[in-house]
């Protein structure tokens, strides 16, 4: 049975280094037997999470759709920038809303519980988004995800991609390849659907 892997960029910027890195990961994973898909948070606009709004109106349809996509996966690769040494608000808000979904297609579900998650980040800075990934790791572990220790950090991302969007640095490319391979192997062995 083929594993289902979802790639989730944590940025909406068209020229985002993280969107480029997500595209590279998708290219690499597409060469395997896994079923690879990508979700763009621009397609699922959400209000800022508010418990009162949830009580009054329920979980928004877009959050339910994101949760449904996540619940159907064996693995998730989040490729996210770092904002002020933490999680970008867009990504955090989507995670917060999706975590509130309790049923998908009439079945009880916790979208992140038992999900194998890999993390990657590209930044023009010297930390490569590492601090933001640590913040994401804490949140996802609290939601029951199996967050892999291995991650991919692309330093100096402003000079890290060629005109075709491919990684130019051998170390970064090897790191992304290793992360994708480990994500796929771990998702296969811990499949929630097998």
Automatic annotation (TrEMBL):
One Gene Ontology cellular component: cytosol
Domain NADPH-dependent FMN reductase-like: 4-152
TM ranges: none
Segments forming a coiled coil: none
UniProt GO molecular function: FMN binding; oxidoreductase activity
Protein origin, superkingdom: Bacteria
PANTHER family per UniProt: CHROMATE REDUCTASE, NAD(P)H-DEPENDENT FMN REDUCTASE LOT6
Protein name: NAD(P)H-dependent oxidoreductase
Source organism (scientific name): Jiella avicenniae
UniProt lineage: Bacteria, Pseudomonadati, Pseudomonadota, Alphaproteobacteria, Hyphomicrobiales
């Amino acid at each position: 049975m083929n594993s289902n892997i979802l790639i989730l960029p944590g940025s909406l910027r068209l020229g985002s280094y993280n969107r480029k890195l997500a595209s590279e990961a998708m290219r690499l994973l597409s060469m395997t037997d896994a079923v690879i898909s990508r979700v763009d948070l621009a397609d699922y606009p959400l209000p800022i999470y508010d418990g009162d709004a949830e009580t009054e109106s329920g979980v928004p349809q877009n959050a339910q759709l994101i949760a449904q996509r996540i619940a159907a996966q064996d693995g998730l690769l989040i490729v996210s920038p770092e904002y002020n040494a933490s999680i970008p608000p867009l990504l955090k808000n989507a995670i917060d809303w999706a975590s509130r979904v309790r049923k998908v297609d009439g079945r009880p579900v916790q979208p992140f519980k038992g999900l194998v998650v890999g993390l990657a980040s590209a930044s023009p800075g010297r930390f490569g988004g590492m601090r933001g990934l640590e913040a994401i790791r804490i949140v996802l572990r609290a939601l029951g995800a199996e967050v892999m220790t291995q991650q991919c950090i692309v330093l100096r991302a402003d000079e890290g991609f060629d005109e075709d969007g491919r990684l130019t640095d051998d170390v970064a490319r090897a790191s992304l390849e290793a992360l994708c391979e480990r994500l796929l192997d771990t998702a296969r062995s811990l499949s929630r659907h097998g």
